[in-house]
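Entry 14. Structure prediction run on the chain below.
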Amino acid sequence: MTLDHTRPLFVRLLLLAFLVLVPPVALLAYEALGEFSQGLVPEMDKKAETVGHDLAASVERAVGYGIPLNHLQGMDQFFGPVRAANPEIRYLAVTDRDGHILFLDGIGREVLEAHFAVADFDEGGGRSHKSSIGDFFDLALPLAGKAGSAGHIHVGIDKNYVRGLVNDIIIDLGVVTLVSLLVAVEILLFVVTFNVTGPMRVVAAVIDRVRRGDFSRVCGVTSDDEVGRFVHGFNAAIRLVDELFRRLSAYIDEVKSVHFDPGVVERVTDIESRVRFLFRFARDGQPAIVNEHQATDIRLPLFLFVFAEEISRSFMPMYIRDLYAPIPGLSPEMVTALPIAVFMLFIAVVSPSAALTSARLGSRRVFLMGLVPATVGFFMSALAHNVYDFIVWRSATAIGYALVTMACQGYIAQVSKQGSRAQGLGVYVGAVLTASVCGTGIGGVLAERVGYRATFSIAAVLAIVAGLLIYRLMDARQPEAETHAPRKRQFIGLLRNWRFSALILFAAIPSKMALTGFFFFLVPLTMMAQPRADLGDVARLMMLYPISVVLLSPLASRLADHTGWKAGLVAVGGLIGGAGLVLPVISGETEMIMAGIVLLGISHGLSASPQLAMIPDVCWTECRNIGQTNVLAFLRLAERVGSVVGPLLAAAFIPLYGYTGAIVALGVVVLGMSMVFALLSFAYGSGPHIEAELEE
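Output returned:
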């Protein structure tokens, strides 16, 4: 069975959007970047000369006071802030008249001494002189002394700086193009399914009734586009047939009541019986309206809302650190982790009641209810003064997030037929993963360009747009759902199933610990501690996780279905994720962290779908007694323990081992728990639950 029936359409629209969007963007970017790189070099030369003149003026002032050039003090402290403020300047140096290096900051002397010993810096006639030295352009400016030239000050410009800037811009353009592509596809998918494929499915259902002689239904499509006009014409044909039937019935009644020939009356009565046997019409002359609710109705609003939440993923720890305020008894690292843990805690606490509220009040109403605290939380997070009020606003966002996501899941469960629940789940998972790719990627770029607070404000605007879509496009009346809530003792009985408990404790919880502790918390902090790293680098690196999950998850689902090796895939996924977190013990470089992120994505791509698919096997009795949906909901609630513990445990490791050591320590914990599940997984192939299912 296909997990998501929109996937083929999504792929075709993605190809179409790619062909329309990417080539012109690539061509414009190529032309613009060429002009940019050509125009940047002269500007860098002007900037270097300005910096050199300012430094030369300061040095000449000191020499003018009678201090010999080679006796100047504090030159390292003098040069350091200048280089820090101008990353394109790799070194600053002062040489005497013979080219001997007196002071140097930035690189080793051996790189420059051979060139300075033979170079003639006075060939510029008292003006600046530019020369090439290996990977640098050296700009030499004369230093005037009381007896003429005292020496030269050198500004070394990195030749690769412009190339690096261009590469960063190309990567940012690629990220923005990818996000634009995915957003365009989501919008196209929504437009096509809402305005074309959805109405045509309704038409197909009504046509199927008409083919069987049932003219009691018409299509409930009200749009005025081409599809809408076709549907209106189709409905008009059905109403015309209904009207002709009414006329025929009236004529038959008239014949039966006034005709004097009994034979004619008998034949007319026979005709009436045959017509009523072969065809069905609405009794009151008003054909019922057929509307079809689909899981895809909710996809675009869900995508926008999750996009709004994920947009702050890449910079959340840094923003919290900027808002730091001491909390008695907690280390600075623990304070930084606290808002993330509290956010996850509120989602876990609110989700069960949110699901029941959605079943009682309807998904549309609960979605709109959830948008209120979520939007307020996004907006006020942008205005937070310290970590205290930030925790409050993130808690409000978490409440809204739980309400919205539970409303979406409830709507999908209500509108999906029993045989298409997996397809409905695919719609939800697809929207969330696509939003994660887009939000993570664009969030770092936005934060780097407009700042943290403005990015949170953009998230609030996206949440409002999602609410407007729900309000305008979703019918307030929706299919009714069961509101039965299992009793606590039934959940306690569920925990007595050792296979289910082991799945939670040694697979689901460590998986979430790795996600929130490593990916959400430690990756941004560790990357920003790297030299020359920026938010764009963090965002691009973090995009690897959802991309890995998106690429691998369908393959893992098919493999689990074909082989039945669900517990094995969950075990292998957990081991891969734990091993990825331990990799930085080899080296704390960016490459190892990147490998850890990719392996975590592979881990969750392998294990997420099989983990859900295991539930009917290991909890067959419980699914029969309290419902599979409730068992899955309890699994999701229990695994949130890992989401809360992950960042707090990572924060506790940082003072002991540093950022890289904290990743490794967390990885050891996750790997150890995953090893336990791998050993237990060999016992999952037999047992009373499996046997009971086979006997049934």
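The longest helix spans residues 7-64.
Filed with the rest of this week's runs.
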